[in-house]
Give the backbone structure.
Amino acid sequence: MSEHAIEQEFNITGELRQKLYDNSIVKNYKAGDIILDENASIRSIPIVTKGSIRVMRSDDEGREIFLYYIKAGESCIMSFLGGMHNETSKVRAEVEEDAEILFLPVEKVTLFIRDYPQWLDYIFRLYHKRFEELLEVVNAIAFKKVDERLLLLLRKKADLMKSNVIIVSHEHLANELATARVVVSRLLKQLEDEGVVELGRNKITILKKSILES
């Protein structure tokens, strides 16, 4: 997506879209780059125009859990809340696919809320979407087995990449699911034996379309 991603996804058009570009710094990142780390100060709000970012949360022992993706046209509601209340980041944001990101200074956020009703609507719609995604994470951890959560994660990655071929390592999946790599490798081997996926080096090909359907 280009600069029109914001318009397409959240109906931010015309003057407001131009103001976002005029007041933001545009940066490009490669997959694996860290955009925001836990406990870091939040001085600007990231708005993704190309690529995608995954947002993670870790505990005191360093174990991580995947929370949600930030796609083109979207931003991080955690950054909005932390920046507006002068709090440090509670999450880590890492580039999933090569990305172009607008960084809007925190002090501009409240000015835009005052001057552009579209901007406030954008924030509320993001908040609603992220709240539903976080409920999904809580539900998965509380009520789903690891194999079900793995299938759900594969579905999300396939949807994000718009492909049934997912470039990812077993260790990476294990980190996002907050489980051991050997567990993920065992479950993937079972899926391969059942003809659901085909495994390659840091690559998983989904063979059964049924698991791509929500």
Remarks:
- Residues 145-212 form a domain with the Arc Repressor Mutant, subunit A fold (CATH 1.10.10.10).
